[in-house]
Design brief:
149 residues, globular
Length: 149
């Protein structure tokens, strides 16, 4: 049980998300499908909070320091660059963006993009959840050696 809780917590961390949680959980000898489910659900936990609070947090942080402004401008620029690709297809674009298990994609980035594009939370959550299901399945299959590149 403790290992599955660690899997959930690891999947909630930005950047690593389920791309790290699934291979590590399977490497620990845990049931692959239980790892898949816990990683997807854990990765989904921060999404509504990010969507609701991202803009407010960014606005609050702006003007605090020159360093913070530069950092936020860089993050904002990256979000906007990725948002252009997603914006064209909206919900389907968001699903595909989250489904690609590469660095810079995933639930955290998808939630930030959805927030900055003012997508409805319900619609964005459905797209992000669908993308996580696909990304998790891809990572599980790669980890188990079903798919190799």
């Amino acid at each position: 049980m403790e290992d599955y809780l660690m899997n959930i917590l690891l999947s909630m961390i930005p950047v690593s998300e389920l791309r790290v949680a699934i291979p590590l959980g399977i490497a620990k000898g845990l049931n692959p499908w239980a790892v898949y489910i816990t990683a997807v659900l854990g990765n989904l936990v921060p999404v509504p909070f990010l969507m609701l609070l991202a803009r407010n947090i960014f606005d609050w942080m702006r003007g605090r320091s020159e360093w913070m402004d530069r950092l936020l401008n860089r993050v904002d620029w990256r979000i906007q660059a990725k948002a252009k690709k997603v914006n064209r297809y909206e919900r389907l674009g968001l699903l595909i963006f989250v489904a690609i298990p590469l660095p810079g994609t995933g639930a955290w980035s998808g939630a930030l993009i959805a927030s900055f594009l003012d997508l409805r939370i319900r619609n964005a959550m459905i797209s992000i959840f669908g993308g996580l299901l696909i990304a998790g399945l891809i990572m599980t299959m790669i980890t188990l050696g079903v798919v190799s590149f």
